[in-house]
Amino acid sequence: MSEDRDNDDMLAAEYAIGLLEGADRDTARARAASDPAFAARIIGWESRLSQMADLPEINPPAAAKAAVMQRVFPAAAETSFWHRLGLWQALTGGAVAALLLLAVAHWQPGPQNQTGPLYTTEIMSQTGDFRVVAVVDMARSEVILTRTAGAAPEGRILQVWAHGPDAPAQSVGLWPDGETVRLPLPPEIASVRGTLTLGVSEEPPGGSPTGSPSGRVFGTSDIPNVSEAI
């Protein structure tokens, strides 16, 4: 069981960094859309890696990557390097950070992870008492949300909202019960390009009576660079 979790974590890391290609990437994307726990792992890696975005940009010689990768991961090995568990366990501290930085520098996740039809984000309250993992699938025009902490107060209901740049919040749908909900995106939300904002509020049974959030808004999250489904 522990080995399965380790393998899932390494696969999520590969996806977050942008190392997966072709059928492997499609399979991971489909799993993230249906497996909230796996999607949460991807978000965790993206969050950790995003801290490297503020580092100064460097442009090493073109041959540097090939030389380093040949030394660390000989070309004869066919399997993904993240699955070389012995090496993964041997690397610690600065060695892991350096390896991840190399991967981020040469396989930027932006064009692959942020402009494709599948987007992941986390909606979290400022106090941390409410957290939701959201997976937006623009190809299917739907969003899958999973609560990892918190719930609506007794006698209230969760409602999901979304909007594009400079647009008012629009209801995506009600989240009556259960930890996970799958909601179709309204046409106006499915057609958003650029930054898509998601949010969750608590409302009276039946939803907000005003057409806008009327109860506590637990949190919102911006998803940048949303593009047309491919």
By DSSP (H or I, 4+ residues per run), the number of helices equals 8
Give Rg in angstroms: 20 Å
Strand numbers in spatial order across the main sheet:
1-2-3-6
Strand content: 25-35%
> Number of folding domains?
2
Topology, element by element:
Layout: H1 2-17, H2 22-34, H3 36-50, H4 62-72, H5 85-90, H6 94-106, H7 110-114, E1 118-124, E2 131-137, E3 142-149, E4 157-163, E5 170-175, E6 180-184, H8 187-190, E7 194-203, E8 217-226
Antiparallel strand pairs: 1-2, 2-3, 3-6, 4-5, 4-7, 7-8
Helix pairs in contact: 1-3, 2-3
Name its key features.
single chain, 230 residues, alpha+beta, Immunoglobulin-like, 2 domains, four-stranded antiparallel β-sheet, 8 helices, 36% helix, globular
Give structural notes.
Helix content is 36%, strand content 26%. The protein is of the alpha+beta class. It has two domains: 2-113, no CATH class; 115-226, Immunoglobulin-like (Sandwich). The strands form two sheets. It has a four-stranded antiparallel sheet with strand order 1-2-3-6, covered by helices on one side. A four-stranded antiparallel sheet has the order 5-4-7-8, with no helix packed on it. The protein is globular. It starts with a helix and ends with a strand. Residues 76-116 have low confidence and may be disordered.
Short recap of the structure:
The protein has 8 helices and 8 strands; from the N terminus they run αααααααββββββαββ. It is an alpha+beta fold and 230 residues long. The strands form 2 sheets. Strands 1-2-3-6 form a 4-stranded antiparallel sheet, with helices on one face.
